[in-house]
Amino acid sequence: MTTFVDRVELHVAAGNGGHGCASVHREKFKPLGGPDGGNGGRGGDVILVVEQAVTTLLDYHHSPHRKATSGKPGEGGNRSGKDGQDLVLPVPDGTVVLDKEGNVLADLVGQGTTYVAAEGGRGGLGNAALSSARRKAPGFALLGVPGTGGDVILELKTVADVALVGFPSAGKSSLISVLSAAKPKIADYPFTTLVPNLGVVTAGSTVYTIADVPGLIPGASQGKGLGLEFLRHVERCSILVHVLDTATLESDRDPVADLDAIEEELKLYGGGLEKRPRLVVLNKVDIPDGKELADMVRPDLEARGYKVFE
Ligand SMILES: Nc1nc2c(ncn2[C@@H]2O[C@H](COP(=O)(O)OP(=O)(O)OP(=O)(O)O)[C@@H](O)[C@H]2O)c(=O)[nH]1
Ligand SMILES: [Mg+2]
């Protein structure tokens, strides 16, 4: 079964700081050689980093527990403990980090954007570092500080220039597959697309990204079909393209009614979607009935101010 994974709960734990060491230097005939306990190492952070090549949160769905390594304790002979290693977790562009109450902690947009999800603890000082004029050889050292940790929610909001919106099976995935190198699943049943597909289109010297999102149906903004889950992907796209099926066999649908239904959902969702510039694509005009219907509805759509393409 395909799982819809653009929202995951991630459990992160940073590394603990290593403990400081209490040690006294010993050498033959030199019984009080002074303190030489080293400091503990720093615990590693857990860091989220936007990596353009990563497009889903699937990895974190499969293994949601992520822990950075702890610092090593200090040792005698003034040897500091080794620092723990930072754990770098690559996430897709457009990942939003939330706490369990739904508050936004970070909105990661743009290659290389980082967020420290859990902070490693400081290492404890060894007794060498703690010695002073008043206390020449402290017999103790400090404990390392525990790393922070907890649960965060990662949610993906696709970032693209253009979003294709339309009913299930309107042909959105087919369109992105011919415009770009993306090879999404295409099939003649609704809700074939479960996660957004991203494609890069090169048109002359212009390069832009295009997102194919799962099909919308009336009630989507209330959670029908795949619902709100993916309307949020449309949120960050600058231009919306309506992909309208001119050859649907469902009697209660036609391109204009479909467009109205989708517009209604976008309006109900809000978030500024209703203000995005739009284009219309009349699809499946290779089917004779489709071409006929396309010719019929084109003036109507153009009268509403849409630029219409076939
Ligand atoms: N004849 C014809 N069929 C098309 C065209 N575009 C898509 N189809 C067919 O329509 C069906 C649905 O296409 P998809 O691209 O999967 O549609 P979708 O909009 O991505 O659907 P969901 O992912 O379910 O929302 C497939 O069987 C396609 O082969 C077209 O221009 N002409
Ligand atoms: Mg699709």
Furnish the topology, listing elements before pairings.
Layout lengths: L6 E7 L32 E5 L7 H5 L2 E3 L19 E5 L3 E4 L5 E5 L5 E5 L8 H4 L18 E8 L5 E4 L6 H8 L17 E7 L2 E7 L15 H7 L4 E7 L9 H15 L8 E6 L4 H16 L4 E2 L1
Parallel strand pairs: 1-3, 2-4, 9-11, 9-12, 12-13, 13-14
Antiparallel strand pairs: 1-8, 2-7, 5-6, 5-8, 10-11
Bound molecules: guanosine-5'-triphosphate and magnesium ion (MG).
3D architecture notes:
With about 300 residues, this protein is an alpha/beta fold. It has 2 domains: about 1-155, GTP1/OBG domain (Spo0b-associated Gtp-binding Protein, Chain: A), CATH 2.70.210.12; about 160-310, Rossmann fold, CATH 3.40.50.300. The chain has 6 helices and 14 strands. The radius of gyration is 29 Å and the shape is rod-shaped. The structure holds guanosine-5'-triphosphate and magnesium ion. Magnesium ion (MG) binds near residues 172, 173 and 212. Guanosine-5'-triphosphate binds near residues 169, 174 and 287.
